[in-house]
Records
---
Amino acid sequence: MATGGGFEDLTSGEVERQADMERHWDERLDEGQRATAERLQATGLTGTLQIGDGFKFRWLRGDDVLAESDFHPRFPEAFEEAVARLPASEQA
């Protein structure tokens, strides 16, 4: 029976590691990316990381998704794509 969750084949340690990375995504950024994240968070945006078939990153204001990346094999690329997809008014 096929299921769509993605966590079925992971050990409990792998699930915990993924959950930890989703919570602490900002610690995986380089200095320039971290400065960008801090600037955007200071304007009220929330960044979220989803791990599945790669990494997907979203910027939200409240419950509204303002920008979302595609899935990427590496987290920094997902972060950069989501930043680039933000409306210009949110990047200022």
---
Amino acid sequence: MRTGRTAPGAGRAPGHRRAAIPLKAFRAAADNDFTLPASVVEQAAACLLVLATETAQTVRPSALRATISVALRLRDAVELSHQPTLSSRFW
């Protein structure tokens, strides 16, 4: 007997649950001051790299390059945010 329900997560991409957290954070940031925790940006970058890996054989090369480029820029931004700020006296 079928109940019409499917298993949780059935038919979704393997990284769906991981991607939900950054997506919710990005939507919440859009409603506020556009500030995101570094951990969320790191997680979003990781999700994009996983997406690029999983779809590398099925998407256009330009789409793959764009996805990887965004992921690397997000990762670089997080790394920059961890560096100490230099005061103007060092310049």
---
Amino acid sequence: MPTTCLAAATIGMLSVALFGPGVISTALTVFLGIVSLKLIRLHIPPAIAVGLIPQILEGPIHWYPLSVGVGTSILVAFELASSAMERIYLNKTRVQFDSPH
């Protein structure tokens, strides 16, 4: 997921840098976002929205893809750690329903 969001943010930033905010850069971002989702074979439509955010950002947007990549990586790391801790906890507290007979 971080790779997909990073790609979408980069596409959005580059299209705004090349064409400025507007219809052309929006259409290009959506089109290339859909193509990249198909190539990566993931179904994450919010990644396209991540690519559209540079349309409304003011000031320098060159840090945007990096911040999206770092942010989504941190979220995925927390989710993986949380899932691992939950599995460990459930394995330690599992009630045995086997009868001793």
---
Amino acid sequence: MKTTDGETIYTLEVVNDTQMAEAPVLGWYPVYAVRAGVEKDSWILRSTEFLNATGKPVMTVEYRNVTQNTGIPENIFRYSPPEQAVVKPMRTVVITPPIVP
């Protein structure tokens, strides 16, 4: 946990013994862990680090001026691929806030 811009930031880390993804940094680097910084109260993602097998960052992404629920209609996020398209699942990393009763 740290403080950035007056916000408390939680650090969440997902580590795997085998490669879990690739980072597109001047080529493709194997990723074995992902470290994310999220705001304590809003769970807004503030940073993401992709780490190699030795735990060193191969790519770091910082998010600034993030806003949520800005009135974008839900249908803007619907995607219908063309009929001839072959849709294949891709490997993803997802961070979700805890469910609070």
